[in-house]
Design brief:
By secondary structure, chain A is mainly β. Chain A has no helices and eleven strands. In chain A, the strands form two sheets. In chain A, strands 2, 4, 5, 9, 10 and 11 form a six-stranded mixed sheet that branches. In chain A, a hairpin with a 6-residue loop joins strand 9 and strand 10. Chain B is an all-beta fold and 114 residues long. Helix content of chain B is 0%, strand content 50%. In chain B, strands 2, 4, 5, 6, 9, 10 and 11 form a seven-stranded mixed sheet that branches. In chain B, a hairpin with a 2-residue loop joins strand 5 and strand 6. The radius of gyration of chain B is 13 Å and the shape is globular. The chains are: A mainly beta (110), B mainly beta (114). At the A-B interface, strand 4, strand 5, strand 9 and strand 10 of A face strand 4, strand 5, strand 6, strand 9 and strand 10 of B.
Amino acid sequence: KNEVEQSPQNLTAQEGEFITINCSYSVGISALHWLQQHPGGGIVSLFMLSSGKKKHGRLIATINIQEKHSSLHITASHPRDSAVYICAVGTKQGAQKLVFGQGTRLTINP
Amino acid sequence: ETGVTQSPTHLIKTRGQQVTLRCSSQSGHNTVSWYQQALGQGPQFIFQYYREEENGRGNFPPRFSGLQFPNYSSELNVNALELDDSALYLCASSRAGGSGETQYFGPGTRLLVL
């Protein structure tokens, strides 16, 4: 079992829909990161959170430390939101590193 | 503020060769982390350099080595290349070491080993 699991792996929706991507992890963490990767490889950090909820524009990230679960929500989705969304956790034990999920490929159709 | 840059953008090598990839960190950042991303997979942590010292390493063999320079730029060296080393190599810089800092990623170097 991977230390970080994301669901769904692929998601296709229509413009305007509310999107939810889930992330579960099994290790102790210092922080959880949500990242966006566009075709061609560039990765942008969207959020880093260790508790509660953060909002930036149409993006909302939440984390439940007790349940070891985080969600990324996109409101009023737009075709330009199409990308791979990656959840990564910063580990507390041993080498302090980021452990990444497999990513969720999101496609928003106009 | 200058972003993270990587060079080269693309590289083709043959098995057994050696390669050096370069990363310039964002200004004000003293930490660089390197990741390998195989096609269709999430990135895997290779190692992190903090103030010129290795500050954590993932499950990669010793033929993967690195350096960080006084200006905090960094190199990733891979010896005795194997076909499975074909991947996108990403570096990311941050203000401090560890795993609890926001990381700023470079555009990556795409390596193909034939």
